[in-house]
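Example complex used in Figure S2.
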Amino acid sequence: MEPKDFNSSDPVAWCPGCGNFGIQSALKTALARLGKPPRELLLVSGIGQAAKMPHYIKANFFNGLHGRALPAAAAAKIANRELTVIVTTGDGDCYGEGGNHFLHNIRRNVDMTVIVHDNQVYGLTKGQASPTTERGIKTKIQPGGVILAPFPPLETALALGCGFVARGYAAEREHLAELILAGIAHKGFSLIDVFQPCVSFNKLNTYDWFSTRVYKVGPEHDVADKSAALALAAQRERLPLGVLYSKPGPAYGELSGLDALPPLVNADLANVDIAPALADFR
Amino acid sequence: MKDEISVRITGEAGQGVISAGMMLCRMYKESGRHVFAIQDYMSRIRGGNNFFQVRAAGRPVAAPRRQADIIVALDKEAVEANRGALAPGGILLLDAGKFGITQLEAGWVHVPLYALAQEAGGELYANSVALGLLAALTCGAFEGAAKAAAREFAAKGADAAAKNEVAARKGYDYAAGKIKRGDFLLPSAPHERPYLLAGNEALALGVISAGCKFYSAYPMSPSTGVMNTVADYAAKYGIIVEQAEDEIAAVNMAVGAAFAGARAMTGTSGGGFALMCEGLSLAAITETPLVIAIVMRPGPATGFPTRTAQEDLEFALHAGHGEFARAVYTPGSPEECFLAAKRAFNTAERFQVPALILSDQYLAESFTNVAFPDTTGEPPDRGRIISSEAAPETRRYEYSDDGVSPRAIPGRSGALAVADSDEHGPEGHITELAEVRIKMTEKRLRLKLAGLARETLPPTVVNPGAKTMLCGFGSTLGVMREACAAAAGTGFIHYPQVWPFPADATLAALKGAGRVLTVENNATGQLARLIRRETGAQAAGSILKYDGRPFTADELSAALEGGK
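Predicted assembly (846 residues):
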């Protein structure tokens, strides 16, 4: 399949130069390489600029509430485990409004790939601080500069036992496409935090800023070594890109017994016999 | 011989009050009596005072009595807390030695509960001793108690079952020899109401029967019983029960699973439902079938976690921002809980709307023996689903005369499944066009509401146009039925569904009526306001109870007497 097979008819509403274009391109490339038709894919999002992505890719999609992409996505995957489920979310959506779901869906470990468009700012609501905004950045709401410590998504995910933790960069499309494919291949919750320059509201973390800081993790890094992954995730001067951690483990489908059942969506509802259960109440 | 009797077993949390209560229910049911039992318990795991009160009779009973003819107190505090509930001529059984009570008052009877329990193997068997006492005093035979004890402790092994039966036998023998039976003996006759069910269990069985395959919820009293029962049968029926991290996750999971094509629901109580409101609105705009069971308890905020109220009627009618169609079911008995669950799933899928089931702690946790004339109920109807052969360009939110569009199932339908919480056009993409917004509002609100209104469950009406007409929804069904049977010239309307409101049926039932009174477990008369809003009919008054406890049959009868 070709990336263009995933072209959507919906006109794109992002700013020219937005980092989201790079992520969109990488996602289409990854889906083409995956080779599954649009009807077997489900893109799920919340609200924000990243959350518009499902409209711009040809696939099934569920564009739900702000912060609530993960519970909807996890349950859709539980309902039909044959779907490939990909969440496109932002730093505000996933780490702020939906922070509790981020924590617990890592624990839940449903097989889905979560791409966080991390632009370190709120785009759709015009420039307020996000959970990943660096300290000291001035905004209309924080004219004296942000005082909260930034949320560390990769370290948090690693601490929670996430089995696949990666970081991409919107300007590194080919690299990101391969990260997405690896995330899809991992059975369980896969987190890909993507640096995404916001050309309208983030005047610090620009393409130029990233270009002097990012580097790709080399083959010498053992992706099964959590301590090494944590050390990489903690770097703040130079910023590593790539798979920081990847280790297979039992996912929700196996632990819940779901994988032993036919997909829930296939259930024959016409022939549920309640009599045996009712008999217990005699 | 009495035609009915109420017995109360009471003690602190952890003394096996519930276990004894369940055995009593089974004893009466198995020995040819009908039962209605309420649980009154505190929000704590140990200590305090709880009671389980069973009303048994030779005819079906559907509400509790205010007082008990026999009270068995398992600790000293229970004596103080429950002595006021003793009916005239009744007896309170207590272990005077164990409790350090030297002065027995009128109607108090000493029983060496704990010495008998010790003889059976330990003090924890005191509740089974109580069962045996009551078997002797009210049944005059041990067989029902033996069956009940065997059933209650079957899961705990042969030794536990045997010791409890021994304890019950000791209680039975003691009462048979030492306590004057008075006229507590109940008549018995075989009956065709063999199932002992509480509302939560019946609701859960309806959910399972409806083909629900995904239940996500966050534990919250008194709704957790629904989740527990679904979980009990999850493996057998291929259901995934997921404990969500919070109610927001619970409702968004239910919506996600329903979108993906499984029958899915969540359950909660008022505080949790408050957190679910945005998700309810999401189900409405995405036109995703969503079922929510709301088992009410008194608020505001944490309120009374383990007690009852009907305070969230207006909340359920109006919850969620924006304007959209919904159905609100208000079952009044275990049978209606079962049927409401089945109907709610069909309604949710056929109209692609949220369907709410409003229950309360009293209905949820009161046990009664019921018949299930039809164990299947209505067959599942999934509404319009886009087939696997449908053209890819089939639009998910296509306009239609009844507001319902063909629904795509991801991976199963020929067209892609799309959903958007933003306003969207027929193809499901974001729009800001004024004319689309108007058409979509008409579709989601007026067209669907008109279809739903045609299918509202009809109210149960007894003695239409009577001199006094009572109106109630949900759990007041039983108490209204009893009060009407006891008072000539009284009729009632019970609503098993309050939205869309059955205005015509209401006006027909009230035609020629004298005074109209609503009966509600809330402080403001929410049903009275709803009736006036939807029909113009103004109730003369409301009989309201908002102390966290259910109406009793005596209370409602007294209120009717007083109002004459």
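Chain A has a mean pLDDT of 97. Chain A is about 30% helix and 15% strand.
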